[in-house]
From TrEMBL:
It comes from the Eukaryota. SMART domains: TyrKc. This is Protein kinase domain-containing protein. The lineage of its organism: Eukaryota, Metazoa, Ecdysozoa, Nematoda, Chromadorea. One of its GO terms (biological process) is cell surface receptor protein tyrosine kinase signaling pathway.
Length: 169
């Protein structure tokens, strides 16, 4: 849970300086020598709150928000969507709850896009995921970007969940 909180804190900072990362994924999260989470790979980042890209060449489809797949729009809220996926696939949640599988493991990129956009499909959280974490991720995956929480809210919610877990164990 600490990794989840630290990742959210780093992304809350990016949000506060209006930086869209555009490539939030486990492969772009590093651990320092002291095991602190560091968000990396700012090659696609942009210092705006919203932007439209001309094409989606060589982008990780399985981490993209529906509006990015449909309209090529990136925003702070598309980073929130990707954080929900990252939390699902990475050290941040997947290794904790789902043993490291890639998101949408049985689907191709084309199938993933169709299921998310046409069928409004969302992955199930792994067994053993706390209900409060599952609810938070469901908010991150809201179809309407305006309904997704800010990273400051995600960070605070995770801190609250961790505090409750520590008092019950």
């Amino acid at each position: 849970m600490r990794f989840c909180i630290e990742g959210a804190a780093g992304l809350a900072y990016l949000e506060s300086v209006k930086c869209i990362h555009r490539d939030i994924a486990a492969r772009n999260v590093l651990l320092s020598e002291t095991h602190q989470v560091k968000v990396s790979d700012f090659g696609m980042s942009d210092e705006r709150t919203m932007m439209q890209d001309e094409k989606l060449d060589k982008v990780p489809i399985k981490w993209l928000a529906p509006e990015t797949m449909q309209q090529r729009i990136y925003s702070l809220k598309t980073d929130v969507w990707s954080y929900g996926i990252m939390r699902y696939d990475s050290i941040q949640v997947w290794e904790i709850y789902a043993e490291g599988y890639e998101p949408y493991p049985s689907l191709s990129n084309i199938q993933t896009r169709a299921k998310i956009i046409v069928q409004n499909y969302r992955m199930e959280m792994p067994k053993g995921t706390p209900a409060a974490v599952s609810q938070l991720i469901a908010q991150c995956w809201a179809k309407n970007p305006a309904e997704r929480p800010a990273f400051t809210t995600i960070h605070q919610t995770l801190q609250d969940i961790a505090a409750k877990e520590s008092t019950t164990t």
